[in-house]
Design a protein that fits this description.
Blueprint (H helix, E strand, L loop, with lengths): L1 H25 L29 H5 L14 H20 L3 H23 L4 H18 L4 H26 L6 H13 L2 H26 L10 H25 L2
The chain binds zinc ion.
Length: about 260
């Protein structure tokens, strides 16, 4: 039964991933997310239902359009697999309950923000605001005791990121942290709590600086290199969701 349920969750995560691909592609272009139906961007031909099965169709078609053989970006496959995998791990860790629903929604938002930031250096207001509205309703209806903690988490996230945005601006004389980064962090704080969001921000800067240093060495310069931060924020958040308590306990062990 557990296996069957896990498979159902995996499949649902993949279908959601397929929808996230539509959001990633269309929202930055200000296109409708409902119309027209999925079509090949190259030959404009509508994608048949049997060619639109998450994960499987991409493998069967070898990443090409059935009609014109144009390459389908491998992002479509990756987003579906990542979404399905995150959903399954969340289910195995939390079971099917409030935590699962919360984190499944949050991880979907993180996937979209990571890709729009990678592709366009943008974290879209429409995505963050929708996230806030859904989260607000979910907290009020499913877990209203959490509301105060959520508000403190949101303020903590916004204040810490805002502080570093100002410091970055003074140090580098340009925008090092964008408004989108601050809003996304505030949203994650709203989903979690003040302690968790503080560790997430610390982890984010830690991961980003490692990658920044590696990139700086490879390109022999860090001038004018923009690093989209949303993917790091997302990885840090997932690490905290999956290992949070263990990480905090391990950290406290050091001081024993
Ligand atoms: Zn085509």
């Amino acid at each position: 039964m557990e296996y069957l349920l896990s498979f159902g969750i995996f499949a649902t995560g993949a279908i959601i991933g397929s929808f996230l691909n539509v959001l990633i592609h269309r929202l930055p272009l200000k296109q409708s997310i409902l119309f027209p139906a999925s079509h090949c961007p190259e030959c404009q031909k509508p994608i048949l239902f049997r060619d639109n099965i998450p994960i499987i169709s991409y493998i069967i078609l070898g990443g090409h359009c059935r009609n014109c053989r144009a390459d389908i970006p491998y992002r479509y496959f990756i987003v579906e697999v990542v979404s399905a995998t995150i959903w399954t791990i969340l289910f195995l860790k939390f079971g099917f309950g409030t935590d699962f629903i919360f984190y499944a929604l949050l991880s979907s938002i993180l996937i979209v923000c990571s890709y729009t930031d990678l592709n366009h250096y943008r974290i879209l207001n429409s995505v963050v605001i929708t996230g806030f509205i859904i989260a607000l309703f979910m907290i009020l209806f499913l877990n209203s005791d959490h509301f105060a903690v959520s508000v403190y988490g949101m303020l903590t996230g916004a204040l810490i990121m805002g502080f570093w945005a100002i410091v970055g601006r003074l140090l580098f004389k340009k925008t090092a942290l964008g408004a989108g980064d601050i809003k996304l962090t505030a949203l994650i704080g709203f989903f979690t709590d003040p302690q968790t969001i503080t560790v997430i921000i610390f982890l984010t800067f830690f991961l980003a600086s490692i990658i920044g240093i590696i990139q700086g060495i490879r390109l022999k310069t860090i001038k004018d290199r923009r690093i989209p931060l949303a993917p790091f924020i997302s990885v840090a958040t997932l690490v905290m969701i999956f290992l949070g308590n263990k990480l905090i306990l391990a950290y406290l062990e050091i001081f024993k």
